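Researcher: I've been going back and forth with a colleague about how Endolytic murein transglycosylase might be arranged in three dimensions. Neither of us has a model we trust, so I'd like an independent prediction. The organism is Alkalicoccus daliensis, in case that matters for your notes. Sequence below.
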Amino acid sequence: MSEISKEEKKRLKKEAHLRKVQERKKEAGLVRKIVFSIIVLFILILGAVGFGSYQYVMGALGPLDEESSEAIEVEIPIGSTTDSIAEILEEEEVIASATMFRYYVRLQSEDGFQAGQYELSQDMTLDEIIVELQEGTVYEDYAASFTIPEGLWAEEIFPRIEEATEVPADDFEALLEDDEYLQELIEEYDILSDNILEEDIRVPLEGYLFPARYDLMEEELEAASIIETMLSRMQTEIEQATGDPASDNMHELLTRASIIEGEARNDEERHTISGVIENRISIPMALQMDPTVAYAHGERLARTMFGDTEIESPYNTYHVQGLPIGPINNPGAASIQAAAEPEQHDYLYFYHSPDGEVHFNETYEEHQATVSEYQ
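Model: Here is an independent structure prediction for Endolytic murein transglycosylase. You can compare it with whatever you and your colleague have in mind.
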């Protein structure tokens, strides 16, 4: 066989290289086509979803029925929250979506909704409904108003109500001693259970009277009506905090919340203190929370001494393992939220120093060292 010249070798090598380049171009072209097709398909899907979402949002913000101007009577009760107002509007078929109403109100930072009787219609937009609820018919001629701070005991709440409304504190106390009335409340309110009827419970509705401002009409000035208004508000707050007002765990939740209310000095501490309670219960380890001692004694203690902790009571967490038999005060929304969402950490101890700070520690030795710094 004749030898291939150098020039021929170069030519063949060049042709082979060109063939490879052309093959790669074809492959790259195919890949580009595939990628381009995928991108186009993705854009079309996004467009369809986006258009659908846009249509949904615009539909929710607009009138439910542009052709319907028929008046729909809607009552917004005193103490209603944004969430409860949204549910009422949806139930009365004034708006399409309670969820969209809530999101829109929060996005727009709308507030100032007033209790009252309203005439709304399905041809109103969401913005028009919001304005109406802010400026429409308002309950202005209240017969009485009172405000209950967080953390009070029931026996401290009733005299405050009496002072503001002239409804005798004895009327409230009589109702809480009426087992038949309490059983009716248990059947009416999801947050209540037979736990409140246990023999050693000091005040059956302790922990269930939501602390807030209440504005009352003349017909609401009776003990049963006031109690039920406060219970309704507590049920609403618990639903917002947990999404589930089931009575089988609400007693425990409010018991935890009441301890947090008694111990915390500001909102930043509440979830951390809730985590300490959770950690001690899970070990298990005695809670040893001072506010439970004061409640067991039935008096506000300026300082908890060692002798105070020796009282035998189902409320004293130096005496019983785990939670006390029931709530030790009436907690606010922040403490209920903290009880529902304890912070995850390894702390077992905390100490409030005289300067107002709270110090958390994981071990007893660390805790003792912290206490020693301030004593």
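Researcher: What would you highlight for our discussion?
Model: I'd start with this: The two ends are 107 Å apart (CA to CA). After that, consider the following. The chain is about 50% helix and 5% strand.
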